[in-house]
Design goal:
The protein is built from 11 helices and 12 strands. The chain is of the alpha/beta class. The strands form 3 sheets. An 8-stranded parallel β-sheet has the order 11-10-9-8-5-4-3-12, with helices on one face. Strands 1-2 form a two-stranded antiparallel ribbon. Helix 6 links the parallel strand 10 and strand 11. It is globular. The two termini are 35 Å apart.
Length: 313
Amino acid sequence: MTAHQKSLGSLSVSPLSLGGNVFGWTADEPQSFAVLDAYVAGGGNFIDTADAYSAWVPGNKGGESETVLGNWLASRGNRDQVVIATKVGAHPDLKGLAPTTIKAAVDASLTRLRTDYIDLYYTHYDDESLAVSDFLPALDELVKSGKVREIAASNISAPRLEAALTFSAEENLARYVAIQPHYNLVSRDTYEGDLADTAARHGVAAVPYYALASGFLTGKYRPDSDVNSARSQKAAQYLSTDRGRKVLAALDTVAATHQAEHATVALAWLAAQPTVVAPIASARTVDQLPALMSAADLHLTQDDLTLLNEASA
C-alpha cells in the first residue's frame, strides 16, 4: 500500500476514484484511454463504472463504459494493478436486484470488462420491493465463487443499510464494505445524519459520487458565464441558490490561500469528512486530471474546514 492508499474491506485504493461515466459518452475510446493512462501514471488505481453507463445517451444501450474499460485493461495488461468497481441493478435490460438479474448482470459485466473478477460490486439502487434476505445471498455467492471480491451499496437508506449489515452478520454472508452516496459541499443532507452515522458505526467506507456537483465545484460556473459542457445546466442550478453562492465564495478564499484549484479544495474537503475513503470524480480530458489528483496532497486547516462547513451548512 503506498503512502496515500486507503483500505476498503480487503482492497487497497487510491484516495481519488476515477469516475467512468464519461467513457463512451463525452469521452470517446482514445480520449478515455489517455485519461486512464494518465490517472494510473499519477498513482491512481480505483476506477468506478456501472453496467448502466451510458444508457441515457441516444443510441447507447448501457455497458459502453465497461466496454471501453475492458478494452483498456486488455490492451494495457494491467488488470491486477487496478481496482475495478462496477454496479448492478440499473441496466435497462437488467433492472432490480432479483437473484437471477444479479447473476445475468455480473456475467455481462465480466464479459464487457474482459476480466474474470470484479473488485467492488455495488447494488446501483436499493430494490425496496425485495427484502435484503432476497438478494444478499446472491451477492454472497458471487464472492464465494470468486467473481466478486467485495460488495457495496450505492443509493441506499440508513434503515436498509442497517438491515443489510445485520442480515449479513447473522447469516455469516459477505457484507457491504462501502456505500456510494450523493455527497458534496452543496449537497450535505444527502449523506450526513442517519446514513453517515450508520456507516461510521459499522465501519463502512463512503465513496461519494457527484463529488464536484456536476462540475459546479470546479469554480468555472459563474453568474455571467456560459460554459459549454454536457452538465452545465445542472451545475448552473446551484448558482441560483444562496448556499451555492456562499460555497463558491468560500472556495475562492481557500483556493487562493493554498494556490490550489477549486476542484482540489472541494475534493480535499470531502476527503476530510468522517467515513469518506475516496471521492469519485471524472475527467473527460487529461488536463482535467491534475486538479483532481492533487486533492490527496492538499492539507486543509481547521480554519479552511470551518469556512467551508459554514458556507455549505
